[in-house]
Amino acid sequence: MAISRRVLIQRLRALQLSGVLEISNALRPQLCALLAAADSSVETNVSHVAPPAPSAPSYSTPDSRPGSWEASRTESAKLAVEERRAEERHPVEHNQTSTTPYPEDIPYPWEVKRTRKPGITSMNAPKKTPPPLEVLVPHEDLSYLAEMSDRHEALRLLHEKVARCTRCLELVANRSQTVLGVGNPYAELMFLGEAPGRDEDKQGVPFVGRAGKLLSDMIEKGMRISRAEESYICNILRCRPPGNRNPLPIEALNCRYFLDTQISIIRPKFICCLGACASQFLLNETTTISRMRLREYEYRGAKVVCTYHPAYLLRNPSQKKAAWEDLQFLMKLMGIEPRASS
Ligand code: URA
User: Fold this and answer.
1) What residues are paired with 274 via a beta bridge?
2) What are 246-277's pLDDT values in tens digits?
3) Does residue 18 contact residue 137 with C-beta atoms inside 8 Å?
4) Which of 333, 322, 203 is nearest to 268 (CA)?
């Protein structure tokens, strides 16, 4: 399917904003071919506006010019700007929509002041869905970590890699350190949160703040198992998002390989997702958490259940009863005897 140059540039820009600073050699030919295809389709559309520049670049072979990735990106950006300007200057001519003379009493389209629909401003206009990212720099192969018998050592090596990650520029600029996980890597049960908060970022350990205290109570007082010995706790992201904002999909995607590696090292039998963010990202679902709870899912050989995030329960204590139902559902799945009510 042909892809327009503008869409391609948007996608590259999205990649760049998400921290992708280089494209691996394996992907260059594909990218150059896409640029060439995009350029040739645009050239045929706009050839009546401006003749092609004498030094119009050819991207058909990746190595036809030195530094072709950088240069083609700049060149494409320039061409896109030129095209947009031509469109703004001569919209009718550019689009060739009509050959009949223009009626004198009707203003030209560019003379009409554009009005927005009432109530729609740049602030509340519906957000465009970001384009799908088709070109991602592959992660270094870490599958050997899952084969190590010493899971503590495997996690230590994984954390070394995570600490050097610079994929999400905004997170890298704001983090004090990366936060991998805490607990027993031989435990059957994994809790999956969203992302480190301020306290976790300071201490390098997940769930140590107020929400962490509530999670400890849910595990120790509710389920009657040991948080440190019988569970392992980690997050969708390994860096704190500034101001504790929700993780962006691209950040979750960037961190996904680390999470998957962590899961294949620990091989949990049960995963309990805490909150909508963890549940939706892990299971690639868009349904609400209230619809996802009390259901059994599967991920990489583990049985997965979803419940409310402890931080949400702190803000909405009336939902603690529902969270307790979720824990009982999990306990039943795990074969843990429910506590006799006193
Ligand atoms: N909230 C989370 O989702 N994870 C943490 O580690 C701390 C708070």
Assistant:
1) 307
2) 999 999 999 999 999 999 999 999 999 999 99
3) no
4) 333
* Residue whose C-alpha is closest to residue 221's, from 334, 335, 333, 323: 323
Q: From ligand 1's centre to the CA of 246, what distance in Å?
A: 11
Is the C-alpha dihedral spanning 217, 218, 219, 222 positive or negative?
Answer: positive
Quote the pLDDT of residue 68. Answer: 41
Ligand 1 atom with minimal separation from the 278 CA? 3
In contact, 77 and 9? CB cutoff 8 Å: yes
Nearest CA to ligand 1 atom 7: 207
Task: Kindly report the protein residue whose alpha carbon is nearest to atom 6 of ligand 1.
Answer: 206
241 pocket-lining for ligand 1 (C-beta < 6 Å): no
Q: pTM here?
A: 0.64
| Lookup result for tokens 């030919």 | 29
Distance 232 CA to ligand 1 centre (A): 13
- Alpha carbons 147 and 29: distance in angstroms, whole number: 34
Kindly state the helix (H) or strand (E) to which residue 170 belongs, with its residue range. helix 169-174
Number of helices followed by number of strands (H, E) in the chain: 15, 6
- Please measure the distance between the N-terminal and C-terminal CA atoms of the chain and give it in whole angstroms: 66
> Residue 338, CB half-sphere, CA atoms under 13 Å: how many?
12
Q: Residues 82, 91: contact at Cβ < 8 Å?
A: no
Q: Which amino acid is at 217?
A: D
Mean pLDDT, rounded, for 25-54: 54
Beta-bridge partner residues of 273:
192, 306
In sequence order, the β-bridge partners of residue 270 are 189, 303
CB-based contact 57:71 (threshold 8 Å): yes
Tell me the per-residue pLDDT of 292-311, one tens digit each, with 9 for 90 and over.
999 999 999 999 999 999 99
d(CA 71, CA 160): 34
Summarize pLDDT for 172-189 with one digit per residue, the tens. Answer: 999 999 999 999 999 999
